[in-house]
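Progress report, Aim 2. The chain analyzed during this reporting quarter is listed below.
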Amino acid sequence: MNTFWKGSVNGKVRVLVTGVGGNVAQGVLKALKHCGLASWVVGTDAHPLSPGLYLADRGYTVPMATDPDFFDSFSKIIRNEKIDLVFVGADTETLPLAEMKERLEKATNARILVNPAEIVRKCSDKWETAQLFACKDLPHPDTVLAEDREGLEELIQRHGYPLIAKPRCGYASRGIMVVRNKEEAHAASMMLGKDGVIQKLVGTDETEFTASIYSSAPGQVDACIVLWRELLQGTSYRVESCLDSALMDEVKRWGQLIGSVGSLNFQFRVTENGPICFEINPRISGTMGIRYHLGYNDVEMAIRQHCFGETITQPTIRQGVVLRYWEELYLPDVSIDGLREGMTAGDKAVG
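Predicted structure tokens for the chain:
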């Protein structure tokens, strides 16, 4: 466990953000800075070259969340830093932290902000998501398991082409294939096997939206934002706020039926039959760094609920467009080898 030092300790709310090498966690860091409610922010990541380690007040490298040493290492950081709230910023850490949430909270007295493990499992697996939506009678794409050849033939007969094939537990559009004929359908079936699904391709790129909700209790949706988006390599990079009350009401209805707690993200397309959700992220999503510009800051909501005991209400969403761009982080007087060994600005890392 390496430690990266900077900043000073003061104020009331102390938070930790995991997975600070990715855009989700970096969005959380930006939202924390914007709301000004956390005076001490700790970042963790498995890789010492993760930018967020140097944007937080203090950064730690930790084992992977699936590593047997992770629990002891992570809980030690939380205790030593006197953390109040933990924000989960990495998709790959969401389920492990959901499964160890109760143990971590007992060991540290911190609140781990993650959905219940059952919801995380169902929402992270696109086959389970389709079954969940069918059970709740919610609109979703017609879906079959990639290995189900008979089901695939029936799907083709019902909808024709194009279809879309994807990993059951993928993210950021990784492994997604548009299927345009029988040969491609069978190739996708062979490639993905039991680990994939094939779905009806709904809507168009021009009618794709992402939406986030915040629930202070299961089935109680306190706040919602809907965004039209354009994707680049699976990430929203041109975004416009959508003030359509009917879409917001439908998204809230989905959230109420699913019963999530805290932040949850829906990805959907609007079709001639209305909005159809094709993916759920049971966590803070990648548009966190965008949402707060438009008046919706679910990081702030979590702090206000859990630390200040405030009731969360729907914020006023501002009309606007957010365009993403690259930004550089310069670290003076260090080397790549030094950073990998746990060195920053000449200070020896504490292990």
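The mean pLDDT is 90. Residues 245-258 form the longest helix (14 residues). These observations will guide the mutagenesis work planned for the next reporting period.
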